[in-house]
Design a protein that fits this description.
The complex is a heterodimer.
Chain A: H1 4-8, H2 13-26, H3 29-50, H4 58-87, H5 90-95, H6 101-120, H7 127-130, H8 136-162, H9 167-187, H10 196-204, H11 206-217, H12 228-252, H13 257-261
Helix pairs in contact in A: 2-6, 3-4, 4-6, 4-8, 4-9, 6-8, 6-12, 8-11, 8-12, 9-11, 11-12
Chain B: E1 6-15, E2 18-28, E3 33-37, H1 44-51, E4 59-64, H2 73-79, E5 80-83, H3 95-105, H4 110-123, H5 139-151, E6 157-161, H6 169-184, E7 188-193, H7 196-200, E8 204-209, E9 212-217, H8 219-224, E10 229-235, H9 240-252, E11 258-262, E12 265-270, H10 273-283, E13 288-294, H11 298-306, H12 310-313
Parallel strand pairs in B: 3-7, 3-8, 5-6, 6-7
Antiparallel strand pairs in B: 1-2, 1-4, 8-9, 10-12, 10-13, 11-12
The chains are: A mainly alpha, B alpha/beta.
């Protein structure tokens, strides 16, 4: 058995909650397929469809965006589970425990980000098939960027999901907000060729900077006006801001949607 | 002097225009089992959620071991073990994994955690289920795991919301025994229930109706507030009960004791009712469907206090059902 020093140690709550996310993921096989397959299928279909009608190689162009989409899907699936946690009752037990709001958010976000990375990183092995030329330093940068993006997108998903009562509501927000955010990030078409109003929208979209940085790390071309340091800084700030938002919703509305609905529906009336 | 384990002072809470809880004051001592008994919608769950630190009261305050949750939120939560009416286990994790996670959330060192898990698995006879996924457990087994989970960090105060939900009578008996032995070891236990038999096992009972604490005493003392025995007369039809009550009243006057009409029955509380029943039956031959004589039950106490039967008082909106 463990020695005395080990017996005195305890697992910190965020790590314990993050580990739970990962264990749950591997016990739900359909989630693995659901997160990885659709973006890959899309990459092959869209890349093939645009093949030849594009200045640069379309497989290479769509590749960074596809990796980001895998991470985005992973983040969505990971954070949507907070709605299930609430509905199935698990969350109430966490909310009465002495765990701080920041730790609750960190546990979920860390778990989701690790899952996103576990799904996104292996895709980098496909780089040789894309026509992109990348060295070891580029791959390392790409991995670091993916980690930041996974953290940012999971935090964003968590902040949204926390106050929602149903997974259907999340799907609506996903289609209305998260997917357009991805479409307007330069993942799907280049910023520089877009009409000016769209270009403005893409310039304020923080994901644009993450996708550009990833594209650059993988040997692709990013908009000339965006320096590498700008793209990294915005991506890091995006991650920090989204995590702050995730912590804030837990601290502000510990009861989630119930706080909003309490007036209309008292707890005993269920 | 040590402060009570739980002290609630004038707690009130409204949802919109509806007052779910009004001016509720009570305390629970160490080693005491305190039952909040009331119909559904009576305010039990609201009170439970306030004490579990999930819902802030609109007015009033409470303390756990003398600590104010508004000032010392985390120390208060460390002292509380909470068993919810609905499941709070992760179904995709095993029994052991759920308990280990609970230990981590409460900051138990890994050595203590392992020892406590073994202790509780044994106490709730779950040793051979530790590596089973919770989703494969029966309702009664899962309930035992819920309670084991709440006790893992050895809380001095245990809150349970309708703890016997989904348990068969045997398992319910086991639960009451387990709570009694925890109380003997010094744990303060507060449970909500709408079952009289569960409330009977408590040291003291708070009767909660329409958000108000309408009575607070030991089960024996509560029943002793009724005058001796209760005679229940069932009228031939619903409409007949008020008329029958009036006739009994005019025939026997003050001698009849306290008379209440509840649905199709007329209830008479009085001393030495065994001498009264034959005279009652002779006075109105053929007017009753049945006559029963019994010692007062907690349900009789509820009826005496509210003029309603317990089941009739079950109302989703907690609204009044006065007859």
């Amino acid at each position: 058995m463990a020695g005395a020093t080990r017996n005195e140690r305890h697992v910190s709550p965020p790590l314990a909650l993050a580990r739970r996310e990962i264990v749950r993921f591997f016990r739900q096989k359909s989630r693995i397929v659901g997160a990885v397959a659709p973006p890959l299928v899309m990459w092959i279909l869209v890349g093939s469809g645009f093949h030849g009608s594009f200045r640069e190689d379309s497989f290479g162009y769509f590749f960074p965006g596809t990796v980001v989409l895998v991470v985005l899907f992973a983040a969505i699936f990971a954070t949507i589970s907070v709605i299930e946690d609430r509905r199935e009752g698990f969350l109430q037990g966490v909310l009465v425990s002495p765990v701080a709001p920041a730790s609750i958010a960190l546990g979920k976000v860390l778990g989701g980000a690790v899952l996103g990375l576990m799904q996104g990183l292996p895709l980098l092995l496909l780089v040789p098939l894309t026509g992109l030329r990348v060295d070891a330093a580029g791959l390392l940068s790409a991995a670091a960027l993916l980690a930041l993006l996974a953290f940012a997108l999971t935090s964003l998903g968590f902040a949204i999901a926390w106050s929602l009562e149903s997974t259907q509501g999340f799907h609506a927000i996903m289609n209305l907000f998260l997917i357009p955010m991805w479409l307007l990030s330069g993942a799907f078409f280049p910023v520089d060729g877009a009409p000016s109003w769209l270009r403005a929208a893409m310039a304020v979209n923080p994901l644009t900077y993450g996708v550009a940085a990833l594209r650059r790390a993988l040997g692709g071309a990013a908009p000339a006006w965006m320096s590498p340091s700008l793209s990294w800084t915005v991506t890091a700030a995006f991650a920090a801001l989204m995590f702050a938002a995730a912590v804030a919703v837990v601290a502000r509305f510990p009861a989630g949607p119930a706080a909003r609905l309490a007036a209309a529906r008292p707890p005993e009336a269920r | 002097m040590t402060p009570p384990a739980v002290e609630a002072r004038s707690l009130s809470r409204a949802f919109g225009a509806r007052a779910a809880l009004t001016d509720v004051t009570f305390s629970v001592a160490r080693g005491e089992i305190f039952a909040l008994l009331g119909p559904n919608g009576g305010g039990k769950t609201t009170l439970f959620r306030i004490l579990a630190t999930l819902l802030p009261p609109d007015a009033g305050s409470f303390s756990i071991d003398g600590l104010d949750p508004m000032v010392a939120g985390r120390p208060v939560r460390r002292r509380l073990g909470v068993v919810f009416q609905s499941a709070s286990l992760d179904k995709k994790l095993t029994v052991g994994e759920n308990l280990a996670l609970q230990g981590d959330l409460y900051g138990l060192p890994s050595g203590t955690r392992a020892a406590r898990i073994r202790e509780l698995l044994e106490m709730f006879r779950l040793e051979d289920r530790a590596s089973d996924l919770v989703e494969t457990l029966s309702g009664g087994l899962a309930r035992r795991v819920e309670i084991a989970k709440a006790l893992l960090h050895a809380p001095p105060v245990l809150l349970l919301d309708e703890p016997s939900t989904g348990l068969d009578p045997g398992a319910r008996r086991d639960l009451i025994d387990a709570l009694a032995s925890l109380a003997r070891a010094g744990t303060a236990i507060l449970l909500t229930t709408h079952l009289f038999e569960e409330a009977e096992a408590a040291h003291r009972i708070g009767l909660l109706d329409q958000g108000r604490l309408i009575a607070l005493d030991t089960p024996g003392a509560l029943k002793a507030t009724l005058g001796g025995d209760v005679v229940t007369v069932e009228a031939k039809d619903d409409a007949g009960a008020p008329a029958l009550a009036a006739r009994i009243e005019s025939r026997f006057g003050a001698e009849a004791g306290r008379i209440t009409v509840v649905g199709p029955t007329v209830r008479v509380e009085r001393e030495a009712a065994h001498t009264f029943v034959p005279r009652l039956v002779e006075a109105f031959p053929g007017a009753f469907k049945s006559v029963t004589l019994g010692a007062p039950s907690l349900e009789d106490v509820f009826i005496a206090k509210t003029g309603r039967r317990f089941r009739e008082a079950d109302a989703p909106d907690g609204g009044s059902h006065a007859e």
